[in-house]
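Hi V.,

You were right to ask for the full record rather than a summary. Here it is.
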Amino acid sequence: MRILVVGAGAIGGYFGGRLLQAGRDVTFLVRPRRAAALAERGLSIRSPRGDFHLPAPPIVTEDALADPFDLVLLSCKAYDLDGAMASFAKAVGPRTAILPLLNGMRHLDVLADRFGPDHALGGLCVISATLDADGGIVHLNDFQSLTFGELDGSRSPRIEAIASTLTGAGFDARLSDAIRQDMWEKWIFIAALAGITCLMRAAIGDIVATGAADLSTGLLDECAAIAASEGFPPRKPFLDGVRATLQASGSPLTASMLRDIEDGKPVEADAILGDLLRRAGEADAHSLLRIAYAHTKAYEAQRQRSEAVGNKTT
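Predicted structure:
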């Protein structure tokens, strides 16, 4: 099975690298600057699950794409989705499956509009990884799971073939018969965690220490109610686990969205918070989700204004 991994950043680089390490047929679709860095330093992974270095990983740039691939692994940020789709369009043939690892659900509609309804699978990953100063991939904890499945829950021949390829490749691969439910539950967790840590600009343990854990769980309940209204009520073991996570004393846990704000980077406010809020219909004036979304949008406005000023002075 020929696999095209779109990008070789922290997520795509990690899973694509593990697949290469396991002998799978993987090519990274990268921009010229990343291509030059990989050609010079190779692909490196530092991880509690074992380090890996490949001096010359298989890479291709958009202009050199020619033939369709069997599987496209897509792990871009939501705000980069349009550009990513344009970059790998030539790799999508009649039988190509696209496995997106984006947060939220809106990207499924966007992919269907661009490529048709039969190409996209459902997928999600659980991993904490980043790039170091040299572009190497640093895996920050022990989690490295990738869950995938047909959106209708079927066990199609293509999903069985994909499962066979992804299984045994050095990470935890799971074929799900309820991938939409799994994606909704991850979305709820990410939205509650991102919403409260960005709003409070603090880790979970610090929020708990102020006696405000009820705000975290209140936001979780609000997100869970939206999922239920969309036909995907979260399962009790999931909700119990997330509730415990959001009330954990001393926890250093924050959302990657907060780290992006602190670093002055773009954020996925619309995909993670805004689209969930839109599905709620007319939100209450005191909705925590509405307030958290407004907070992140205010950050985006401030960031855009700062960039505009910077562009004028350079």
